[in-house]
Amino acid sequence: xxxxxxxxxxxAATLLAAAACSKxxxxxxxxxxxxxxxxxxxLQGASKDASQSTINAMQLYLDQxxxxxxxxxxxxxxxxxxxxxxxxxxxxTCSKNASLHVANTDEVAVMGTTTLAAPSWRSRSSTRTxxxxx
Length: 134
Fold this sequence. Notes:
The protein is built from three helices and nine strands, in the order H-E-E-H-E-E-E-E-H-E-E-E. By secondary structure, the protein is of the alpha/beta class. The protein is flat and about 40 Å long.
């Protein structure tokens, strides 16, 4: 139960941080701002079910909030940091995903991964850095 509460609290904090730290992306009439929260987890192998449950919980929370955090529309962008061949987390895939996170200017936060052995990466921001673990 404590793990579930902690996970939901982390999800809520991530989505709120996304709204607070975001760069706006005007869509349509220009009044709506859309940001993305990256979710970088192993979607293959032994961690598949736990990762999918985490993504489902994040999406459920986001849906319950109407897909909004303040004035921002928030979308999840899911990345798989595993491969079918490895059946688990893969260092090369993780590095590729880290580059995709940095290149995605609409992505304001990244949740993941559960692998502690992965390298840290610096953000694209010149005014602040944030570690991106994959």
